């Protein structure tokens, strides 16, 4: 297993100076990660820089679905649905422990977006565009069958339902695994390294000035090509490059809330109608269900974003209309808020704007890519790396379609299932739910993490913490509690309980000073408190 740690960060940064880089990728979300891997597999010398943690932007705040987007079919965006539909299968094949098949239930309700007939036609087109295998094509359900899966749905408005195939993922872990895969192929990547300025020669960008948030030092990096994959921040960098650039993005905010499964009994992920003709997802995960999302114009601070009570009210109201149970803010264990970088079009509101990606090239040579979806990251990366390779005169082709992302991958989903059940029988002194979490988060590295726990007489959670520091470049507590484990969202008690251990281990590894450690503790605690609307504290 390849080390990926900030403890040898300075040496890794020094080594970069020796390399004649082809490409600098700015932004460590799924788009930047995809570009890094694609370029590395084609033999380009490439580095990625991320101002915060990897996946700390939109790529840890999505609905976590790898999906074709049924709602885009309603808008007749056939090309987008076909591409996403085909990409779903590729994402599953290449990282099956992270991209799981998920049956999605669409209840048909009185006054809803779909009748049985229109839903049946739409989903059959959807299945056909995505080339869904016969055994997974849509299935009509009676009212009784829907009630078995979703006993709390309001029976007075329910007419029946349809179940169809989607995939669910962990967006942040997918991003981090892709970055690790790129590093195994000679790429380099740094979190907490911000592109703060550009330097020019004859009107063309020559190098990027980077601010290292860990050492508070500036460094300069040069490469033949610079790509900005900064998502919602793309306009900020474009304006840094050229003052006169007009905004290309419409920023839309989307939030999710997390409630206990004991409050909403749900046997299947569900896509349900809202009173304003939008639709929401309710997705079970571990012991909770998350519900989302909203789609509202956002003009505030992009670096400081939380779910507000008003945002949550919309989701709570909508859920209270669909289910018999009444949910209140006290039920919200956790939440997250993300920003969609949508391509601006005059006269269109957030829900109408296209989810397509777009590439902008400035006179100075800065290539920016924004928009798109998590699901389409591989194709977005291919478009960029095709273009960069052509410009550099390299004759290569994209290799990511068949490339398994994990260093020790499962050959297919049945091997993943067998591995998980063997793990549960072999390590029977541990909780099955913890072992399932390990294999669905870290794949076969679950065994490495378990053996480390056994040989060091520590808990699995503490072993995960060491793994994230040594092999996944974690530097601050939220890197572990939020993005590498998802505890902040799906097991907020654990995030709270593990904070002091995680902080101690990070501070020992990176020699944080006492004052800095105290500040990090306060900042992390504030973030944990802000996630929980019920203000849960242990
Ligand atoms: P980001 O993930 O935001 O990455 C950009 C990165 O650039 C950030 O990490 C940022 O810190 C960094 N950066 C910015 N400026 C600098 C700088 N100067 N120097 C260095 N780094 C910098 N898609 C799906 O397919 N399925 C879904 O279920 C889904 N659900 C969604 C739900 C919501 C609420 C939202 C908001 C989006 C959803 N999407 C979904 C869309 C998907 O999440 C995004 O398209 C995708 O995550 C965007 O990734 P990105 O890498 O382009 O941007």
Description:
Strands 3, 4, 5, 6, 12, 13, 14, 15, 16 and 17 form a ten-stranded mixed sheet that branches. A six-stranded mixed sheet has the order 7-2-1-11-19-18, with helices on both faces. A hairpin with a 2-residue loop joins strand 8 and strand 9. The protein has helices at 9-17, 30-41, 70-74, 78-94, 116-129, 143-149, 171-184, 234-241, 309-322, 377-392, 413-426, 432-442, 445-455, 460-471, 477-484, 487-490, 492-510, 514-531; strands at residues 23-26, 46-49, 65-66, 99-109, 139-141, 158-169, 188-190, 193-201, 204-212, 217-222, 225-228, 249-260, 269-273, 279-285, 288-292, 296-297, 334-343, 357-361, 367-371. It has 18 helices and 19 strands. With 538 residues, the chain is an alpha+beta fold. Helices cover 40% and strands 22% of the residues. Helix 2 (30-41) runs parallel beside helix 7, helix 11 (413-426) runs antiparallel to helix 12 and helix 15 (477-484) packs across helix 17. Flavin-adenine dinucleotide is lined by residues 26-32, 49-52, 56-59, 61-65, 67, 194-195, 229-233, 237, 254, 293, 338-340, 372-375.
The amount of helix comes to 25-40%
- Which regions contain 5 or more consecutive residues with pLDDT less than 50? none
| Distance between the ends | 36 Å
Ligand identities: flavin-adenine dinucleotide
* Quaternary structure classification: single chain
Task: Give Rg in angstroms.
Answer: 23 Å
Q: Average pLDDT across residues?
A: 94
Tell me what portion of residues adopts beta-strand conformation: 15-25%
Largest sheet: 10 strands, mixed
């Amino acid at each position: 297993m390849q080390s990926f740690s900030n403890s040898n960060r300075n040496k890794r940064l020094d080594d970069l100076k020796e390399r004649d880089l082809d490409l600098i990728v700015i932004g460590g979300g799924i788009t930047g990660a995809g570009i890094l891997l694609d370029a590395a597999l084609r033999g380009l010398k490439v580095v990625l820089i991320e101002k915060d943690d990897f996946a700390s932007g939109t790529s840890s705040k999505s609905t976590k679905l790898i999906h074709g987007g049924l709602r885009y079919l309603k808008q007749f965006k056939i090309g987008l649905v076909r591409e996403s539909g085909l990409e779903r299968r590729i994402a599953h094949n290449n990282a099956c422990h992270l991209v799981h098949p998920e049956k999605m239930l669409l209840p048909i309700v009185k006054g809803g977006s779909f009748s049985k007939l229109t839903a049946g036609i739409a989903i059959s087109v959807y299945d056909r565009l995505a080339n869904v295998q016969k055994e997974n094509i849509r299935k009509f359900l009676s009212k009784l069958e829907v009630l078995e899966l979703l006993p709390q749905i309001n029976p007075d408005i329910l007419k029946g339902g349809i179940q169809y195939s989607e995939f669910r993922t962990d967006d942040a872990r997918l991003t981090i695994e892709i970055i690790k895969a790129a590093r195994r192929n000679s790429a380099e990547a740094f979190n907490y390294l911000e592109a703060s300025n550009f330097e020019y020669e004859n009107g063309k960008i020559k190098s990027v000035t980077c601010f290292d948030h860990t050492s508070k030092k500036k460094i300069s990096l040069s490469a033949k090509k610079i790509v900005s994959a900064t998502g919602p921040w793309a306009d900020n960098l474009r304006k840094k490059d050229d003052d006169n650039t007009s905004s290309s993005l419409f920023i839309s905010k989307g939030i999710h809330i997390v409630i206990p499964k004991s409050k909403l009994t749900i046997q299947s992920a569900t896509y349900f109608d809202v009173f304003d003709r939008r639709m929401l997802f309710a997705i079970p995960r571990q012991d909770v269900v998350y519900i989302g999302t909203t789609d509202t114009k956002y003009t505030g601070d992009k670096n400081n974003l939380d779910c507000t009570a008003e945002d949550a009210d919309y989701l709570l109201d909508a859920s209270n209309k669909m289910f018999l149970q009444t949910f209140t803010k006290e039920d919200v264990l956790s939440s997250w808020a993300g920003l969609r970088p949508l391509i601006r079009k005059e006269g269109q509101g957030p829900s109408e704007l296209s989810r397509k990606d777009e590439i902008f090239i400035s006179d100075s040579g800065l290539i920016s890519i924004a928009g798109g979806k998590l699901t389409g990251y591989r194709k977005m990366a291919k478009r960029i790396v095709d273009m960069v390779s052509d410009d550099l005169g390299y004759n290569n082709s994209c290799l990511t379609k068949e490339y398994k992302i994990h260093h020790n991958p499962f050959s297919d989903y049945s091997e993943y299932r067998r591995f998980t059940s063997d793990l549960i029988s072999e390590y029977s002194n541990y909780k099955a739910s913890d072992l399932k979490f390990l294999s669905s988060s870290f794949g076969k590295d679950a065994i490495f993490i378990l053996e480390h726990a056994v040989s060091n007489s520590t808990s699995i959670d503490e072993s995960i913490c060491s793994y994230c520091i040594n092999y996944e470049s974690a530097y601050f507590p939220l890197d572990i509690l939020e993005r590498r484990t998802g505890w902040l969202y799906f097991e907020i008690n654990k995030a709270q309980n593990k904070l002091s251990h995680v902080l101690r281990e990070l501070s020992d590894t990176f020699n944080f000073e006492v004052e800095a450690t105290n500040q990090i503790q306060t900042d992390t605690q504030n973030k944990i408190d802000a996630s929980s609307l019920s203000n849960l504290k242990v």
